Amino acid sequence: MNWFTKTFSSTIGRKIVMSITGLFLCSFLVVHLLGNLQLFKDDGGAAFNIYSDFMAHNGIIRFMEIILVLGFLFHIYDAIVLTRRNKAARPIDYAEQRPQENSTWSSRNMGLLGTVILVFLIIHLWNFFVPARFGGLEGVVIEDVEYENLYLRVMESFNVWWYVAIYVISMVALAYHLIHGFQSAFQTLGLDHKKYTPFIQGFGYFFSVVVCLAFAAIPLYFFFFK
């Protein structure tokens, strides 16, 4: 296993791991968004509460949560290691730099964007995931079956202006993070070609903007209309 350890602890190996875990996390965003769209149904939260109960008690989903957590941990750890290696390789900046001429703002600030997203993720998990998994939510009866009322928690949270602001700002940060990360992941994996790259960049931009706009629309919808 020595060759395996050396390969994936090298700089290129860590970039590959970051790319794979990043694309995996993109797939999670889609699944998570599809579930959260239940919040827009005008049924008093019934569909969302039933969906949340299914996610909390389905064995396959619970197993995938472990994979998801590992994906996040590997992605974050490799990002920290690569950032430190880059700084160690060039401890003193060049005398004259014009980074805006050969790189995008998001590519130069991936660390900052990632930090904002990580802080949001901790707040988000503490506010929703922990109560949903470990108790603390009120019950609600839907068709003679009692469910935990996560919908009520959503309504209460998204009627607090500063929490809505944090959520929306974090989605902006996530959009910028994805815009660079999506196409960068394909490039790292060797899927970089003049025929495919424009499509990958275009789709990545579309994916990043649409997904993050949809997520940001949820707290804004509750704050202004609920």
The coarse overall form would be globular
Q: Tally the structural domains.
A: 1
Structural class: mainly alpha
Total helices: the number is 9
Order of helices and strands: HHHHHHEEHHH
* Number of beta-strand segments: 2
Cα(first) to Cα(last) distance is 56 Å
What name does CATH use for the topology? 3 helical TM bundles of succinate and fumarate reductases
Rg over alpha carbons: 20 Å
- Widest beta sheet: strand line-up: 1-2
How does CATH name the architecture?
Up-down Bundle
Portion of residues in beta strands equals under 5%
The percent range for helix content is over 70%
Mean pLDDT: 86
Biggest sheet details: 2 strands, antiparallel
Transmembrane segments: 16-40, 60-80, 110-129, 160-182, 203-224
Keywords: Membrane, Transmembrane, Transmembrane helix
Protein name: Succinate dehydrogenase cytochrome b subunit
